[in-house]
Amino acid sequence: MRLLKNSFKTFYVNWAAFKSFPNMETKRLVLREAELKDVPFILSNHSNDRVMKYLGSKRLDTMTEAENLIQDAKEAFKNKEGIRWAITHKKEDQYMGSIGFWKLDKKNGIAEIGYELSPDYWGRGYMTEALEVVLRFGFDRMLLRGIEANVDPQNEASGKVLRKMGFVATRYGKGTFSVKGKMIDTIVFELPRELAELSREID
Questions:
Q1: 180 vs 57: CA distance, rounded Å
Q2: How many CB atoms neighbour CB 91 within 10 A?
């Protein structure tokens, strides 16, 4: 079952959302563009087995690779292909993880969301807090019609967070993630604009 079916009308993302990088704040967090000072922390996250276990992307081994990750995110934003925020704590401005949109389907107004967080900050509600403001940006500023997430079936914590935000598990993604060189299926979660608006009204 798919909730986010292809639109019969051509849908364009609100490109004004990419005019300048949108820093955002929550009660405890600042979401901003990643900077070179974040490189050691990015490398620490992306070389941590506990983080990479469910991330489905290439492990980083050098500072240069971490710098390239920042540059790739900057290029994606410049080319209106995606946006990724560094998640930092208001009190210390230290990199905790990242969150953002990629695989932007410009025709149908759908984007995939991805995120990671240092184990030092797990279990404190930080990712839920970041997700809430980023989802609102996606719907209110980018004018997305829907948002998807691909999750490793074993990553129960991520699935729990997505369900809390209103996402619905709809199907399996075939061979979406690469884990230790092996392609695995994922659970695809979907959040149409209508469900997000309904959830907001209930809140």
A1: 10
A2: 8
Distance between CA 199 and CA 3 in Å, rounded?
A: 16
Mean pLDDT (the chain) is: 89
Q: pLDDT confidence of 54, banded at 50, 70, 90?
A: confident
Q: Tell me the C-alpha distance between 21 and 141, whole Å.
A: 12
Give the number of other CB atoms < 10 A from CB of residue 144. Answer: 28
Q: CA separation (Å) from 161 to 37, 149, 156, 167?
A: 29, 11, 9, 9
User: How many CB atoms neighbour CB 110 within 10 A?
Assistant: 24
Structure tokens belonging to residue 81:
């292909």
Q: pLDDT tens, 94-126?
A: 999 999 999 999 888 999 999 999 999 999 999
Whether residue 45 contacts residue 70, with contact meaning beta carbons closer than 8 Å, is answered with: no
Q: What is the pLDDT of residue 203?
A: 47
Contacts of 127 (CB under 8 A, 6+ apart): 97, 99, 115, 117, 161
